[in-house]
Amino acid sequence: MILNDYGDTFEWGLKEDQIVHVDDVENGLASNCICPACGAPLIAFNRQGNKRANHFQHKSKASCNTAYETALHYIAKQVILETKTLAVPDISFHLSSYAGFYGTWDISERMTGSKLLRFDKVEVEKGEQDFRPDLKCYIGGKTVLIEIAVTHFVDADKKAKIVQRNIPTLEIDLSAFSRDTQKIKLLETLHGNIEKMTWIYNPRIKERKNVAESKGRKVKDYLGKNLQTRKVYGKEHHIYDCPIYKRDYGKIRVEDECHRCRYFIGEYEGAYATGDEQPKFPSTTLDCIGHKGWEFDNLLKSLGIKVKD
Q1: Cα gap 23→283, rounded to integer Å
Q2: CB neighbours (10 Å) of residue 273?
């Protein structure tokens, strides 16, 4: 609801189940509009020459705290229903060619761009067994559910039902949307601002993640079985006999070369021998896969992981 110097007012009303702007209806009670939130009759103040900005007001002059939020919810649904299109985020999962990535391994999720969906049919508030999505959209024989979040977001219980039904479901966050919004601005958001959209569940994206995780486990298992531990010497943190630079240098600084090397896994203070409490080395050690560099690269390539030169 827009709060200004003439009280609690708003620009959108409901007429014959359609959300309408105050500029597009008759003045006064002739607008035949009701409040989207409470259903009470509205008076349209849009006569030319009015000193105040055009607005709706409840006939009873009552305050309705959710009129704006409900109106925005209606507008978003109506825009998608009318256009039957929506730009949605496309998600991929990144696996690195750097061995150190797998030391503290976690899949990197990336929003790789947007994809414009063109729906064959859109249904509003159509029940889906034990829950009711805001929009049920059909495209090429498949179903996509859309939730519009202004003040209420998908909770854990609803998400569990969505996952059980195995239906792609997108949530659009309009909680920070401007209260003096025009329909055209919302249209622009719904057709390009994918930063405000989140896939609550998407079987195809889940499958992509599962594939990436499977590849990541294979790389991590390989590293665990083949890594080589090296002692780091002195205050300058040198290592000797580097498998990558041993032909050019007798020793190298860990910070200068190792930390930037794809085969570097991690550096550790006071590493211990397995099964006892005595330090294996008195100072610092690092783990490296450089001695198996060619084999490691071939493993990455076989899994479709891009190897940097």
Answers
A1: 76
A2: 10
Q: What is the dihedral of CA 39, 41, 46, 52, to 10 degrees?
A: -90
The alpha carbon dihedral of 33, 25, 45, 74 has a sign of: positive
List the one residue out of 161, 162, 164 whose CA is nearest residue 146.
162
Q: What is the pTM of this model?
A: 0.72
Position 261 scores a pLDDT of: 92
Which parts of 197-241 fold into alpha helices (H)? 203-226
CA distances from 227 to 76, 102, 247, 278 (A): 54, 12, 21, 21
The identity of residue 228, as a single letter, is Q
- List 58's β-bridge partners, or say none: 42
pLDDT digits (tens, 9 = 90+) for 199-208: 999 999 999 9
- What residues have CB less than 8 Å from 145, skipping those under 6 apart? 128, 133, 135, 136, 137, 162, 167, 168, 169, 170
111, pLDDT greater than 80? no
- Alpha carbons 29 and 64: distance in angstroms, whole number: 18
Question: Averaging pLDDT over each range in 54-58, 133-137, 278-282, which range is the top one?
Answer: 133-137
Identity of the residue numbered 108: S
Tell me the pLDDT band of 304, cut-offs 50, 70 and 90: very high
Domain ranges of the chain: 2-65, 74-209, 228-288
